Batch of 4 targets.
Target 1
Amino acid sequence: MLQPSNGRRGFLHRILTATGLAGAAAPAAPAQDRINARDFPFLPKYARAQDYKSLKQSSFDTTGGNKDYWPVAAGATREVFNATGPGVITHIWFTIAAPGAQHLKEIVLRGYWDGNDKPSVEVPIGDFFGLNLGQYAIYQSDYLACSPGKSLNCYFAMPYRKAARFTVTNEGKEDMRALYSNIDYQTVPSLPTDSLYFHAQYRQSAPATPTTGDDSKINLNGKLNHVYGETRGRGHLMGVTLGVLQNADGWWGEGDEMIFADNETNPIITGTGSEDYFLGSWNFGGRDGALPFAHGQYGAPFIAAPERTGGRYLCYRWHGDNPVTFQRYMKHTMEHGHANNRGDNFYSVCYWYQSEPYTNFPALPPADARVPRVRTA
């Protein structure tokens, strides 16, 4: 069946297909309808009857005025979404007015599924949208994007059976003047039994500890790698975002990705270098020729002062073409330099789906520790 390839509908179709939710909104069609669908492959899905209800929760002014935002005081938490299921969040959009220079690192987004009191999403808001170094950069990918005007967009489908709740917490020292929020979602009759819960986990190595001696030459088990995410259960890995702040001159990206699935001792996937994992090549162009790039499933949309102390990179890689499956356990890691021989700062988010609506996350570092700073001593 022909499907749109661009725009929101294209994003949503690819996401639902990758997560097994395509067509989940409608109950089983009668046999005659299924035959008709096969007989008319030229008819796109959006031209057929749907069985979901489209809704939005937003920061609109409930008095009818034009103050369509929420102020969030320093230290305060604002609930931005609360719905009972079954349903699917299809799109999240935020834009923020805040005086703090590091507000993208200080504001934390948390998401809870089916009434759990611990989050399955817990990420500084900038990192969640691929802005892992606390600064805005315009780019577009299949699942995340940042537009001119500092608008933040997420197109990961997020199904829930009983309830969904999202909050934004201002962990900075200054009040947030305005949080504009639009969260689009669907209510559905039911979800397939194999639908999974979305997770996003923040990790940082700031700085990573470099290896020395023989340990800096060979690394087969990944024991000192930067960890993107770790979980237990059944599901599949969808990808990562990464911000790198260099603490020394030279190329940071000789580290291999190592992904462990249902084997905690040895990785089932080992790559050939960090820039290769992010589907670039040759140092993204090198010290004097590096160029930013952003595509649907991969990119390095921001590069500044490449291969120099203080150099900054934003990278992302999605596995929408082939989500990495696991039945019991998953850990996604990457070397920081060959055999972990560099001590740069890594700030990352790992995105995945799994059958359980909650997994134990490591403690989120305090706001000030999340701010990228060059560490040369």
Note: Residues 197-370 form a domain with the Jelly Rolls fold (CATH 2.60.120.1390).
Target 2
Amino acid sequence: MNKAEGYLRKRLDLLSDDKVILTTRNNEIDIEIKETENAISQLKKNVDESFEVFSPRSKRNDFVKSEIVTLEKKREELLDIQAKSREKIIILDEEINVIKDALKEEELLSNNSNEENTEYSGINIVKEQEYERKRIAMELHDSAVQMLANLIHKCEICSKIIDVDIIRAKLELEVITKTLREVINELRNIIYNLRPMSFDDIGLDVTIERIISQAKKESNININFTVEGEKHIMGELQSITVIRILQEAISNSKKHSQGKNINITLKYIEQGIYLQICDDGRGFDVEDIKRPEDNNMSGFGISMMKERIHLLNGTIDIKSIIGEGTKITVIIPSK
């Protein structure tokens, strides 16, 4: 690699990392905007214009209206920050494309393919880490954080109206209690998805059965699960990788395949474990997920599957036919 190529590749890595960070922050702002708009919507429901101007309850209305104005101002500020962030991303994209074009013109991208793959893998790992962080952040923001933000506003409203409308205050407190229970359940689900507690207590098979049972409750997809072979102890990292791959495959199938059935086979083999996941959905073009420039989230999930399996010296085979479904076959060594 000559100095020019080295500089261009280093610059490309830096710009790619900057883009990932900016995109992640932009998505976080987008979630915050949605939270703010939801809070505004909830507060507007608490404004009752039917009260007389001098009614004691008019004080509550004044407080709620003031909160709405504050939140609307915050929303405008977030929109402005988001717009500037998007402009920066566009500028980064332009510079990234210029560098890629320069590398292609010199036929540098086609040379030293092994070296290129190693460098791209470094960028890809960073992207995958940021995607995983984004996924967890979105789960928290879309559920627990959003509900907790609404609870703050409801508590503030209760503190203002409790002396003038005790019945309304009691009703609000009942809603707060119910919402807190929902937040606890949401957090338990997120924690379970990060690391199923049952995995440490009852093993791989039962954990998978519970994941499948939960997936059935959340969708209309029929999921069949079969275990074959003589059970043997798997390494902790190998077992949790099986769970992650299964979760990702079911999630992709639910979101994108539009299929009605998923068939899962877990087979204990001499050298490790064999996992096959088939659905009867609409399928997709496997070649699309092989392109580095493809930023499709379902493809990103499959890329993360491959990365996990590669680190464990395993193999993965993905076959999909448009209109006929998808089959994912994984073999992971025991140790």
Note: The CA atoms of residues 125 and 307 lie 8 Å apart.
Target 3
Amino acid sequence: MLSGIGVGIIALLLAGGFIEWIFWAMRESTILFRLGHIQVVRPGYLDRGAADPYRFLLPHSVDELEVLAKLPGIKVVAPRLSFNGLLSHGDTTIGFIGEGIDPEKEKAFKPDLSIQEGVGLDPNQPLSAVIGNGLAANLGIKSGDKVVLLANTVSGGINAVELNVVGVFSTANKAFDDSALRIPLITAEKLLRVSGAHRWTVLLDDTSDTKKILKRIQQLFIEKTGEFQLIPWYDLADFYNKTVRLFSQQMNVLGGIIGFMILLGISNVLIMNVMDRTSEIGTLMALGLKRLEIVRLFLAEALMLGVIGSVLGVSIGWGLAAIISAIGIPMPPAPGTSTGYTAEIFITGPLIAKAVLVALISTFLASVFPAWKASRLVIVEALRKSR
């Protein structure tokens, strides 16, 4: 019985830990490269910004921005200016989506931006660009090549700039890599003939502090709610939220299946136990032990075994998770991505609590019928079993 409980908990911990790691990796990847923890934009930018992007520009420097950057728990506040246009190299021209960034501040976001060739953007090289590997492949671009960017200016005209490609990058999103590039913010402003950014992207020291720091910033901006809108990462990460819901439902089903297997296995063992201990039960009842006390005795015994099995399962599962994580789990590229990754097993407190709870509830339910069956034995017939 202990082995059945332990194996069930180990299975839940390893499967759940793998899913937890996927959630963590996807969340941090989404935050570090695309969204940040909190975005500060003009009200209505997300709904109407694509049609009239220059109407929603944020200024370079305001008092709120200076105070925001100094709040405890905030690592950096990075401005980003979004635009699109045409990219030319040689005789080939193709559309792109671009971002103007502050290269110095964006270093805090760097872990998810993998430079495959060349180097990243440098604040001292304003006429430079880094290009997604898919876009570079489509145009035959490599590090050191010259490209020309064409974009519509704020006045409706067309402007162009020649840039040196200093690096080719890749991310977890293949569709993004096929069309994206980044240039220094100062160059993007000159190209578009604007001053400012569409977003202030706030990166925190710890993702778990997002809601707490969001409230602080809301208090800071409370008098200017008509000028600024604060959007946390979880309101923007639609794909992440849907993935979490899907995988969580699958884990609930898996937990139910494992719990049912534990219930059947333990119930069968306890019924056999009652049959083997019939004479013992008859003796206890003959000595005056009440039927309810017999039920309590079997339930307590089952729960004790459930606790012991849970401790063993958690200990072994934790150890296996550590060993597997140290080795790594090679994974192929996910749909829509261009590179594979090495997964791990991420054991969390809530996951352990859930696994133990499933085991204890299953053990308790499995012991109810055998306990009741033991309490209903006729004393005389039970005592005959000892002859």
Note: The two ends are 28 Å apart (CA to CA).
Target 4
Amino acid sequence: MNKACIEVNINTLKNNIKKINKLTEEYERKIIDLRNNCYGLGIFLVNTFFDMGFKYGYVSNLDEALKVRKYNSKINIIVKNMVIGDNVFDAINNNIILTITDLNYLQDISLIKTKDVIKLHLLIDNGANNIGLKSYEEVKKAIEIINSKKHLILDGIYTDITTTGYIDEYYYEQMNNFWKIMENIQNQNILVYANEYIMYHEKQEIFNSIMLDLSVYGLNPINEIDNLKRKKIQKKYGRYAFQNIDIDLNIPFSIVGYITSINYVLSKNLIGRNYYNKENQRIGFVNIGYKDGLTKALKVVVVNNKISNILTDNIDSMIISIDDDVKIGDKVYLISEYNNMQNVLVNLKTNRYYLMSIINNNLPRIYILNDEKIEQEYSSI
């Protein structure tokens, strides 16, 4: 019997990247967000991203950076969180870029005795009191410190936009905060970038690069735009006008299980631990449960191109309602291009970022490229 797993179709992923690269061709360089093992799909994918034009990768911490380096020796790796103490030398030896979030941290880095070069990116606070340098004066001082040290190189400056701006004004406030800080900073042939939300607005001259994350996996933002509010916001912040994006992306991954057994249950019986059926029902057992990160809150799955209701779940299985066409061994899609992703997010009461963070370590990853299948246990990635 086949194991429950996560299938990643490399061809579909590449097609998404080609479409996004065309849409963002005005940006000179692309950074790919590799945090949390490529949002749970596996650091194995770093080579695909590199081959498709992403020469920079973005990770949370040094441990993630070193894992990426094992798979790819050429990609530039940016670490978001502070790297301190002797760990800095691991970063230096592996050509890893450090993010500077405050002047005290930069002072510590500047005092390190090394003959090697340390590349740095400055993170500017988005204005929502998150981490990062908070004013033009702080950024100016940081650049002065970096330029005064032979072993320090400023390679990039970026900010983390936390909203699309489609349905609120926070995007424009965050952009204005970045603009005010950067308008007097001379571009020293460095990367100046923000995350993929800038893709949905007219390109600003200040940015020469862009960092992409879930759009490559077909999970671009879904927003119902109120035209009146949109016009009001555009009138106030004209230089950040919305783009009309028309891009057809596909979800390149599937979380799948298989029907392991089938039963027929008469009405008014207990199914599992907490479901009482009101009528006679044919049920199927699926070899995936809440130990794998997904529960009955998902509500429905897809089997043989048909929707089936989840009746109940257990630590290692789910029980679903099935029709007479379903047989043992049939594939069950819990999350995939066949599932309505908007309904998935609504049923799980979550957003697309959190959805990708709950993909469980128990499930092996199977990478599909043309007719070849490569399986990897997640723990080895």
Note: Residues 23 and 199 are 8 Å apart (CA to CA).
